[in-house]
């Protein structure tokens, strides 16, 4: 019985660990895109203050304009929990959760942005970041007594809360790894773009210098051309 319950709890934890996935959307000027995440009531049985945690990266493809967005986090009743305007590059939000239900994060690309905004929601999850679940107390006695005691409802509830807390912690760790990976990709793209731009400008500069040098050589050679004398007729 104990092994069966633990297997079920571990399966639940694995599902929770893969529940959060990165989402990338392109938002035209004047448009709003929202993404949601449903938090079950079981998550709020974990001790500690539940928090809605997430990271966002913002970028664009325009060479002339830098997009920026307004980000809002909404609770299950539609009330606004957090907002930040003029996000050009990245931001991190961590706000208190207000019970189970559907939480949404909305991105608004204003007309003043003048270009499409590429928003990368690296992760968006609930986590008890203040304090984790307490340790599980294993009773003393024989193995049979311990197994029966651990298999009781109270101890299984402790195990369930611990697994929920661990799964939430793993979600934050996985999200942080994704965030660092996205940052590395963006730096590599920036470096590659700068390298191509530098090579292009260097090639144009060298071409201009070679052209100016040829013009100067031709001009100097023109000064030393022999001048044919014209004999006057007698």
Summed up, what is this model?
41% of the residues lie in helices and 28% in strands.
List the helices and strands and how they pair.
Layout: H1 2-17, E1 23-27, E2 31-39, E3 50-59, E4 69-74, E5 80-87, E6 90-96, E7 101-109, E8 117-128, H2 143-150, H3 153-223
Antiparallel strand pairs: 1-8, 2-7, 3-6, 3-8, 4-5, 4-7
Membrane topology: Single-pass type I membrane protein
Protein name: GOLD domain-containing protein
Keywords: Membrane, Signal, Transmembrane, Transmembrane helix
Radius of gyration of CA atoms, rounded to a whole number = 32 Å
The arrangement of helices and strands along the chain is HEEEEEEEEHH
**Strands, total number:** 8
The count of helical stretches stands at 3
Helix content: 40-55%
The largest β sheet comes out as: 4 strands, antiparallel
Q: What integer is the average pLDDT?
A: 77
Find the CATH superfamily of the domain at 20-136 and 170-188. Answer: GOLD domain
CATH fold type of the domain at 20-136 and 170-188? Jelly Rolls
Bin the strand percentage.
Answer: 25-35%
Q: What topology, given as strand order, has the largest sheet?
A: 1-8-3-6
Low-confidence stretches: 1-20
Distance between the termini: 133 Å
- Secondary structure category: alpha+beta
Q: In CATH terms, what is the architecture of the domain at 20-136 and 170-188?
A: Sandwich
| Dominant shape | elongated
Text of the CATH class of the domain at 20-136 and 170-188: Mainly Beta
